[in-house]
Every structure is written in C-alpha cells, then in structure tokens.
Specification:
The structure is a single chain. The protein is an alpha+beta fold and about 290 residues long. The protein folds into two domains: about 170 residues, no CATH class; about 60 residues, no CATH class. Helix content is about 30%, strand content about 25%. It is built from six helices and 14 strands. The chain has a five-stranded antiparallel β-sheet, sandwiched between helices. α3 packs across α4. It starts with a strand and ends with a strand.
Length: about 290
C-alpha cells in the first residue's frame, strides 16, 4: 500500500508534534486505537491531514493529504453508509462528544495525491460538492475548510468503545480533480459576469438621484471590511483566515454563526447547523 503523510502530537496544546509518513492502514490504526475513560479532550492525541513546515499553524501548512468531513448535526452514519462504502477507502469514527441521541462523527478520506496549500480551497469546495452529490446531505462542518485544522483521534469519556471502522471495496483513494476543474471554470465565468455587472452598475450610478447615491454609500460603509471587522470584535468572534466564527446564533442560541470579513465573498451571516437551525441574515442585525 502506498505511503501517506500526516502530522500528530500528544494533545491539542502541543503545537510542535511531528510529521509522519506511514501506510494508510497504519494511520487508521493510530486514529482508531482504543482510548477509553479519557476525562478531557485535552488528554486526547490530535492529528492533522497535512505536513507542517515548523509548528502547527495554517501559515506553516505544506501539503494536504486527506479530505475530512465532520458531521455534527445529528445525521446517523448508517443512513449514508450505503452511498459511500463501495467508492473509496476511508475511515470513520464517532467523535468525543457523540451521544446515541445526537450523533457526531468524522469521515477521513485519503486523497489520491497531495494538494498544495494554495489549491486547498478549491479542493475543499470540491469535497463538499462530492459529498453532497453522493449522499444527498450538506451538513458538514465548515471549520474543516481551514487547511491547518487538527482533529482529535477516536476517544471516549466513558468505558464504552466508540464506533470506528475502516472501509473499502477497492483500494481507491479519493480523486476530486474533475470536480475541481468544473469549480474553477465556474469561478472564471462568475468572475466575468461579476466584472460586467460591476461596470454596468457604475454606469447606472451616475444617473441616480443624489439621495439614492448617498443611501448606497451609507450601505457600503456599513458593510465594508472595516465595519464587519469591528462588528466581529463587538460580538466576541474568533477571527481566523478572514472569517469571524463562534458567534451566538439569534435562533438556536449556539455559538455557531459565522461570516466573512470580505463582503465581496459573502454578504450574509449564517449558522453552521443548516438542517437543525438554518438561520441566516445580515451581519448588521447580529
């Protein structure tokens, strides 16, 4: 079996860790080893689907070797297992805060080839599209978009062994190249449409009454990067990679709302829990 690389450390506080090269099955054994009666997540080893050039942080990511899907909205693994089990080799396991009443689990797919850090966002988007097309479910956690994110291995706070199983019919790694190509073509087309629209809007603005122009300028100021950044700090958000996260949701009261600081990328804010909550709205209304 081909070798693959990843990073691991003793716990979440240890950012030094080490890059590891191993077979996929040996990696599965590491992630899925029995770890019971672990009193705190701080005692659980962590791993990252990447190699780092130095300590663990997004800036030090070199290449990404796995596509990881965190499912924490209550979806039960067995409901999607028939759709994915015969496609690619992967490992899945229930996560530390899983309960029988509210499922939480992780899917780990080795990629056919390493992805460079600068290409990661297109591949992450391709992974979301692939997962949705295969399973019909869109509830994966968007924090996995962070290329430098690390994950806890399989562990339990009780003496009950969590589910953790490697699965494959054929030894086929996940290949997202075709979907990535489609996404990049779509982005080129969308960029062209956006540029054409911007030019047309600028032409139309010249013909607007002065009062309308002033209202438009006010709206732009309220939704500028600077205003959105100020709002994020006011809300006590965690800001990383140009995204404000862990904001209290007006609907479900969980700290699961996020929004981008760049209004050109995404204007609205939304709750991570699309299925169980589904809130979205204006940043200024938070």
């Amino acid at each position: 079996m081909e070798k693959i690389k990843y990073w691991r450390s003793r716990n979440i506080l240890d950012t030094r860790g080490q890059n590891i090269e191993s077979t996929v099955l040996d990696f599965f054994k590491f992630v899925g080893a029995s770890r019971l009666n672990v009193p705190s997540k701080d005692k659980v080893p962590v791993w990252a689907p990447v190699t780092y050039r130095g300590t663990r942080c997004t800036a030090n990511v070199e290449n990404i070797y796995f596509m990881v899907f965190d499912i924490d909205d209550g979806l039960v693994y067995w409901d999607i297992e028939p759709q994915i089990v015969y496609r690619n080799i992967y490992y899945w396991h229930q996560t530390y805060n899983h309960t029988d009443e509210h499922w939480k689990f992780r899917l780990i797919f080795p990629l056919e080839k390493p992805v460079k850090k600068e290409d990661w966002l297109d591949y992450w988007e391709a992974g979301q599209r692939w997962f949705s097309e295969v399973t019909g479910h869109e509830g994966t956690d968007k924090v996995c978009k962070d290329a430098g994110r690390c994950y806890y291995v399989k562990a339990s706070k009780t003496d009950k062994e969590p589910w953790g199983v490697s699965a494959w019919d054929k030894l086929v790694y996940l290949n997202l190249d075709d979907i990535v190509q489609d996404i990049r073509e779509e982005k080129k087309f969308q960029a062209k449409i956006k540029d054409d629209l911007r030019r047309r809007q600028q032409e139309l603005l010249l013909d607007l009454p002065k009062a309308d122009q002033e209202r438009l300028e006010k709206y732009k100021r309220l939704n500028s990067r600077e205003a959105r950044t100020r709002k994020a700090y006011e809300l006590g958000a965690v800001i990383k990679d140009d995204i404000a996260r862990k904001i209290k949701c007006p609907k479900c009261n969980r700290n699961t709302v996020w929004f981008g600081l760049d209004p050109e990328q995404k204007q609205s804010a939304e709750c991570n829990h699309k299925n169980s909550c589904g809130w979205f709205g204006f940043v200024n209304n938070l």
